[in-house]
Amino acid sequence: MTTPARWQPADDAEGLPFARALTRRTMTPYYTRYELLWRDEDYDAGWSWRENYLLMGPDGPLGYISLTQDPRALYIREFHLIDTARRQGQGTAALKEAFELAARRGLSAVRLTVFKANPAQRLYERQGFAVVGEDGCFWRMERNVETTVSGDRIGTRTAWRAG
After folding, report:
1. 120-to-26, 45, 58 alpha-carbon distances in Å
2. Domain boundaries 6-160, corresponding CATH code
3. Domain map (residue ranges) of the chain
């Protein structure tokens, strides 16, 4: 595996245009298949109320992850990688960081929604997610996380620092 991407808080100036374009490119086949309408305005509205991070490699962004949370769970609202970052361990590393973030926040689960036809669901299953529901063309998936993490690793990861 290559070095895991560093999570950098994403701002509207740099992060939003990159994330919108990447999401549109990766999700267009599913929007077409399920006859859904893509609207930049809707995407931008969602971006504005989420916690967004660029996944930074040595030469620039490899993808991004967009999160929300409630009192019990961290929600992965969007998670996309550029083509060259796929199948390199970046998805697994990013999910593990999300599990650690949930644990640090005292949350007991990580949840996401994935198109039924999206092969990324295999990655999610390998990382312990299970289907907990269905919503039209989507699977709702969840993975429980340990809220008490032993060892030094939690809280000492540099991947969550800004910059």
Report:
1. 11, 25, 24
2. 3.40.630.30
3. 6-160
Say if residues 60 and 45 touch (Cβ distance below 8 Å): no
Contacts of 21 (CB under 8 A, 6+ apart): none
CA distance 25 to 14: 17
For residue 32, how many other CB atoms are within 10 A of its CB? 10
Q: By C-alpha distance, which of 82, 83, 54 is closest to 66? A: 54
pLDDT in tens, 54-89: 999 988 999 999 999 999 999 999 999 988 878 888
- Lookup: tokens for 47: 């971006």
Residues facing residue 63 across a β-bridge:
55, 81
pTM of the model: 0.85
